[in-house]
Amino acid sequence: MPIEATVQPHEIAPLAPDLPFETMMIETVFFDERGEEARRRRLPLQALLGPLRHRRRGVFRV
User: Fold this and answer.
1) N or C of the chain: less Cβ packing under 10 Å?
2) Cβ distance 32 to 49 under 8 Å?
3) What digits encode the pLDDT tens for the residues 19-37?
4) Where are the domains of the chain?
5) How many other CB atoms sit within 10 Å of the CB of residue 26?
6) pLDDT band at 49 (very low <50, low <70, confident <90, very high)
């Protein structure tokens, strides 16, 4: 049985929008033990990528 695509290629969203990284935000949603939303946290993408850039240079800073 052949595998069929469920989404046409032109409908697939790009992996990264054409925006500068400085303007992109990452939102993390935390849930409590009942599965209800407990809180949200928004951080700039640069805050999450910064430690990876330092690690690539051989220096890891938190």
Assistant:
1) N
2) no
3) 676 778 888 999 999 999 9
4) 24-62
5) 13
6) confident
